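During the practical work, I selected for study one protein's amino acid sequence and its backbone structure tokens, as given directly below:
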Amino acid sequence: MQIRSVLITTRYGSARASELASSIVGMVHAKGCSVYTVNPLAVGYAREIDEDMIKALDLDLAITVGGDGTVLRTARWLSKQVPILAIRLPTSKGMLAEVTAEASDIEYAMQRLFSNSFYIERRMRIIASVDGKALQPALNEILITRDSLTRTPTYRIRIMGTEVAYRMDGLIASTPTGSTGHSLSFGGVIVYEGLEAMMITPIASINRLPSIVIPVTSVEVNSNMDAKMVIDGQVVHDVKQGQVISIGRYEHDALFVRFEPRGLRQLTSMHDG
């Protein structure tokens, strides 16, 4: 893989992330690459752009400096399957990260990148549409929750040809990557990140429904009340009563730069934290 054009993104408001990005920009520029940073991050040798310009770029690599939130945001910005090298700040768990922010780790990563000594790991994503209109893809999860705090909605859920209806606060449709996130906090199971599966985790259901794991298929949900839909904990959409939410696999996987094979990466990261 030839690396010619690189996007660098950082955690919002982090002086440490900006400092590290400046150092990385210098290293990448020295290799003859075009380098881009996202406004408001301005670093010498790099072209500063707005986030809505990213999809038009022909990128070979994205480097994130921060935590998993920075990775999730960057993955949504990319228009195609661009590999991401995630660098974890000391204050972040960074379960998707490959290296830490230590100078030795970053130098090691640059050496491996530009000697083409790495492999690409794929992570499936999911995407929701509301009445046929597609929204942004999710790497972790799609949360559907009630809009009113005083009434409990009934959700109709159609999975693999079977339709059921339950009263509950909401539900989470999660990827294996997201199984250690929001879904887990509501009693969902941890699923090996390499599997192609989707978890449906009810939130405060009247009948105390368990989380279920299903093959990657289309799931349809509608509520008898207005709802909120939250993508990867960062993007919120309003959903009106009766609108049909369809959730299925997104056509483009997220790609991650990896240097060493490591099974059960997410579970290991939880234990290390």
User: Anything to note?
Assistant: Helices lie at 15-30, 68-77, 103-114, 182-185, 265-272.
